[in-house]
Amino acid sequence: MGIQTIPGYMTRGIVVNGHGQRFINEDVYPGLVGIEALYRQGMDVWVVLDEEAFEDVPEAERWGLQPPHVAETVAELEKGMGLPEGAAVGGDGAAVFTLGGLATDDEGRVRDRDGGPIAGPYAAGRASSGLHGGGYISGTSLGPGTCFGRRAGCAAAGAQQ
């Protein structure tokens, strides 16, 4: 067993364990997915995405990885992956703890998918960035949250005038 993927696949699909349950938020730091996969899922982990999501990743960024299972229906995919029948039905079992997620510029303006600023929202601290390692160490977001929170606050106040 093992997971072989790239962040571009994970953020366009869902990550499930050997029971077909989503167990983590896909936009977390990729190292956290690896830690969860190794220590809590026994490396019995899959990234599930549709053809459009696969094609959205530029070929040069796929690192030559090809899906080990391709199916027309969810039932066929479950069977090919060795998941229990009906695994795709049911609740979301994902752990929701993220460090980051919103892309921002230096002034805390939230960026759109093309990198341009979105008029209105600002973000700082754990909503926009994080330090990663073997897990979150309490307090590590205080410095960036303070620094970039101040910058975002000043920028937002300036935008109001």
Automatic annotation (TrEMBL):
Stretches assigned to the FAD-dependent oxidoreductase 2 FAD-binding domain: 93-142
PANTHER family attached to this UniProt entry: 3-OXOSTEROID 1-DEHYDROGENASE (PTHR43400:SF10), FUMARATE REDUCTASE (PTHR43400)
Protein name from the UniProt record: FAD-dependent oxidoreductase 2 FAD-binding domain-containing protein
Pfam families per the UniProt record, alphabetical: FAD_binding_2
InterPro entries given in the database record: FAD-dep_OxRdtase_2_FAD-bd, FAD-oxidoreductase_2, FAD/NAD-bd_sf, Succ_DH/fumarate_Rdtase_cat_sf
Classification via SUPFAM superfamilies: FAD/NAD(P)-binding domain (SSF51905), Succinate dehydrogenase/fumarate reductase flavoprotein, catalytic domain (SSF56425)
Named cofactor requirement(s): FAD
Key words of the record: FAD, Flavoprotein, Oxidoreductase
Keyword Flavoprotein among UniProt keywords: yes
Keyword Oxidoreductase: yes
